[in-house]
Amino acid sequence: MSKEKSDEVTRMIILGPSAQINSSELVQKIHMLELPLTIKSTCYGAIIHGKENVVKDAVEKIRKLDPYNIFTKDRGFPPGDPRRCRAKRGAAREGFHQLEKEFELLDCVREALEKPREVHIEKPIKIDPDSLKKIITECENED
Fold first, then answer.
1. Per residue in 3-52, pLDDT tens?
2. How far apart are CA 15 and CA 22, in angstroms?
């Protein structure tokens, strides 16, 4: 990888189900930032590609539009990369079905971000080996 390409990253911007903007508006807002980015509209939001500091700046500005409903994650390949491009492969790209499952959880994540609460998790009590053996013996005798 050349020196100039090594500091470039690609991020997926995913709009949650309760987002106040749609994909078209999102892409328009990203274009209005006038940053040197490659921008691709997607069914779930957008993909942006460029120098890492520029992508980070864009993500920070875009998330301010709807902080609890705009999510991002790394994408290992730039937009249009033939190894992942659906148009070249003829099917859903790898990871799309994972993204669908993650999307189903985004309203829960939004709610947790909007209304955080303290959670206490009790550590499970370890059972000693003799007690486990006793339980196993009792279960075997029941059959």
1. 456 789 999 999 998 899 999 999 999 999 999 999 998 888 999 999 99
2. 7
- Predicted TM-score of the model (pTM): 0.70
Q: Which residues pair with 75 in a beta bridge?
A: 10
Task: State the alpha helices, DSSP H only, in the chain.
Answer: 3-6, 23-32, 52-63, 86-89, 96-114, 129-142
Enumerate domains of the chain plus CATH numbers.
3-114 (3.30.70.250)
In the chain, what are the helix, strand and coil shares in percent, each to the nearest 5? 45, 20, 40
- Look at residues 50, 39, 51 and name the one whose alpha carbon lies nearest to residue 13: 39
Beta bridge partners of 48: 11, 39
